[in-house]
Each structure stands twice: as structure tokens, then as C-alpha cells.
Amino acid sequence: MINKLIEDMKSLKYIWILCLSCLAAGLTSCNEEDKYFDSKYQSTKIVVDQIYLEDYESSVPDRPVTFARLGQLIRVEGSGLYGMKKVYINGYETYFNRAYVTDHSMLIQINSNTPVEDAEEADRNKIRFVKDDATLEHPFIIRAASPTITGISNTLPKDKEKVTVYGTGLQETTKVTLPGGIEITADIESDEDGEWYSFIMPENYSGSGSIYSEGANGQAATPAYFNFADCMILDFDGNGSQGFWSWSETGSMINADDLVEDPYDSGRGKCVQIVPERLLKAGVISGKPRVSECWTAGNDDAADDWSRMYSYIPATTPLTEVALQFDVYVPEAWSGTGHLQISLFNNFNFGGIGSDDDGASNQVAFYVPWIQEGAIVPFSTTGWQTVTIPFSQFNKYATMIEDKESPVFQNVVEDRNAATYRNFGMGFVNTDFTYQDVSITSTAFSSRIYLDNWRVVPYKTVTISDYPEDEETTE
Q1: What order do you get walking across the sheet with 92-93 strand by strand?
Q2: I want to staple 254 with a disulfide (CB 3.0 to 4.6 A). Which of 23, 81, 225, 294 is the partner?
Q3: Tens of each residue's pLDDT in the chain, 475 residues
Q4: Strands, E assignment, 55-140
Q5: What is the DSSP letter of 266?
Q6: CB 396, CB 323: distance < 8 Å
Q7: 69 to each of 93, 109, 169, 378, 465, how far by Cα in Å?
Q8: Residue 138: which of 192, 81, 178, 194 has the closest Cα?
Q9: DSSP code of residue 157
């Protein structure tokens, strides 16, 4: 009881000290107010020598800079700053605390509401300092948050195809650098809201890796999967081997004769129509599992041992940084029924979402592009489009991550190699199911869906520091 009383008294003591400190600061502010607005300070010339970024978490907490981002704290160093009445950043009146203003220094936090690309041209990338009888307009670049990349429309484009890169903060992209240093500065389009930019694929390009871009908010980079085909599973043109058995005219198995020439005529060669024309003509009824299936060769093909990929994607790579990619072409709207099941090996029945295949410990994933964010949105593509599914989203590995485990690429390879039949496959299912809280009652299916270029790719997010030279010296 006595100890508790002592602690309570200590707490009261600290509270009183804090209150007195605040009162003293308030009195000082009141006493200084007249001095702050004295005419001799209001007419003193304003000079800015340097602006610093204040970031206590950085290895350089007080860094001289030529730009800053919304929300960041900057320190202005110069002279004639005492008595400052107003500060405008990109034309936006910005609050500052006079308690942190001296003749040679002042602190300013850049308000998150400050306009960037929407700023008036005359105001953009300028800080305007105002006193009664002195003003200064200082050039200083203002950027929004660092740009990010969420995906690429087509990661294996052909010559002269348009490539769209999606993300945030991509406004006013003026330069795109492809892997290998190929620079593109012409015919770049970018979204006013910064959600994408696009460029035309140059002819005879063969590099692979990350795309880098430069825009109003700085640099951005994609994962290193652009034009990446070193870990091809099956492209239906000689890379990888297709496997098939027990084929019949009305059966689900897809063989080499079911393959079709690229209907988009882009030069991709052969591809698979995942529900072959023979099955569409016969009619795909509602409630049908295992409508169709397409497999790799399996045990008899060395390419089906994915340890061959370790030289490109190390065995220890986290599964959040490795993905399956394939290309899809859907010329007419697909909506309301049907989905793809992707199986890492041949041990599943293509029962689809909600079936026994959809167990928490199973190495399967599903693709339902016409359900987006809990709503039905008819899906079609203009030309070929790349689909990216991180292996961390396959049921077994997603469950491991939820259980605080850290699966790596080696887990995928070993699971496949330990299977009785290590064929990799995709199949079409037309059953009732629930996905993203949307319940679907299947109907007859008649759409044409084309797939190509099944492959494994690196998927690690590339983060670009505003100050990479500092990163290099502190690693």
C-alpha cells in the first residue's frame, strides 16, 4: 500500500512538471509574439541556403535534399526566417509552428493535402515564404508517396505490342528502362491518377528482368519477371512436354490435336483452348466437374523436376517471392459460371472450389477472373494478358503462412517430386461454388478461353530508395 502511494505521488510530480513546462512554453510564446511580428523582422530579406529532410529513422537523420514527399518533415536553413508569417508549398498554405522558427532555421511538415500534379504550373515545385515586407520563392521539388507496381498486363509481349504497367503514383511517366538498359522515352502514356503507364514493345528485344520507370513521383520498378521464360513449364511450342492418356472424343483429357494456333494471331504459335471446341459443340452442362484437363508429361520428362529452376530461383526463396504465370486470351465475355483449377501434381480430381480438392493442405489454386472484390464483373481481354498467382496463394502454402510458417520454393519442388505422378496441370470446372462471398449456381458454359506459356517466375517486390547511395554505404 505504501509503495503504491509513493508511485502515485511520483506520477503526480511528473504530471505537474509537464504542466508547468507547457505553461512556461505558452508564456514564452505570448511574450515573444510581439517581438516575432516586429517590423524589423518583417522587412529582413529572406534567404534559403539549404533544405534538409528530417528523418530520425534514417542513417542520415538530417539530410540535405532537393525534393521531399507529402507528409515528410523538412528543415529550412538560411537567414531572415524569424518573423515568417506564411508558407505556401505548391500554392498550398502550409501550417508551421512559430516555436520552431529562428532567424536561421525553421521546421515545416509538408501537408498530405498539398497538390502535386494538380498544382498550378506557376506554383508547382516551389516553396513561397511570406512576411509583411519580404517574400521569397524557392524552387523545391514536391513528390507524392513513392510509386509502387502491382502488375504488368503482359510479361511476354511480342514486337510492337502495347505493355501496360499498373500501380500507384505513376503520374507523368517520361522514361521506361527495360532490362539490359534499353530506354524508351517516346509514345509513353500514363494515367492522370497514376494507376498505370504504357509503352510499345520494341522489336527484336530479348532481355529479361525488372522494368524501371521515372515519373513525377520518382522511380518505380517491377519484379524481375518481365520477359522471363527461363523457368518455362509448357509453352505448347516445344518448351516443356505435354502429357495425355485415355483420350476420347467426349473425354476431359486434352491432347496435342486439341491445341490451336494463336487465335489473336500475335505470333505466339500454338496454345491450348482449355475447353476444346469438340466439348463446346457437344455442350458443357451445369454442375459438371472435370470438364477438361491439360497436363505436363510428368515423371517421364526431366523438365518436370523443378529443381532445374534453382539456378534462376534459389531453393530458399520465400513463396511470397515466387509465382506461377500464364497468359490468357478471352475474346468474348466470360461470366457467371466456370473456373480454372491449377494442380501442382496429378493427385486431384478437378472438383473445383468447395470440393475435396479445395482442402487447406492441398497444393491447388483457383482462377475466377469474373469475380472481382466480391462482385461479378464479366471478363474479357483485348489480346493476351498475363495472370500471376504467387505460390503463397496455393492452399497448402497459404495455410502454412497463416500458421506462422515460412514456406520456400524448395517446399514446392519437393512436394512435386514426392508425388506419385508429378504432372503439373490446369483444368476447367463448371460446378456450383462460393468465391469471395459470392455464391454461384452454374449454368451451361460456352465461352472460349485460351491459355499459353505456363511458367514459374521471380516475384520479389523491388523497393527503390530515394537515397540508394546511402543504402550502399550502410549495408
Answers
A1: 92-93, 86-89, 126-130, 135-139
A2: 294
A3: 444 433 443 343 333 333 433 443 343 344 445 789 999 999 999 999 999 999 988 889 999 999 999 999 999 999 999 999 999 999 999 999 999 999 999 999 999 999 999 999 999 999 999 999 999 999 999 999 999 999 999 999 999 999 999 999 999 999 999 999 999 999 999 999 999 999 999 999 999 999 999 999 999 999 999 999 999 999 999 999 999 999 999 999 999 999 999 999 999 999 999 999 999 999 999 999 999 999 999 998 999 999 999 999 999 999 999 999 999 999 999 999 999 999 999 999 999 999 999 999 999 999 999 999 999 999 999 999 999 999 999 999 999 999 999 999 999 999 999 999 999 999 999 999 999 999 999 999 999 999 999 999 999 999 999 987 664 433 3
A4: 62-64, 67-69, 73-79, 86-89, 92-93, 105-109, 126-130, 135-139
A5: S
A6: no
A7: 16, 10, 12, 39, 13
A8: 81
A9: P
| Joined grid coordinates for residue 303 | 523438365
List the grid coordinates of 232.
Answer: 518455362
The whole model's pTM is what? 0.86
Q: What is the 3-state secondary structure (H, E, C) of 186-217?
A: CCCEECCCCCEEEEECCCCCCCCECCEEEECC
State the amino acid at position 231 in one-letter form.
Answer: C
Where are the extended beta strands (E) located within 101-254? 105-109, 126-130, 135-139, 141-143, 148-152, 162-168, 175-178, 182-184, 189-190, 196-200, 212-215, 218-221, 232-234, 242-243
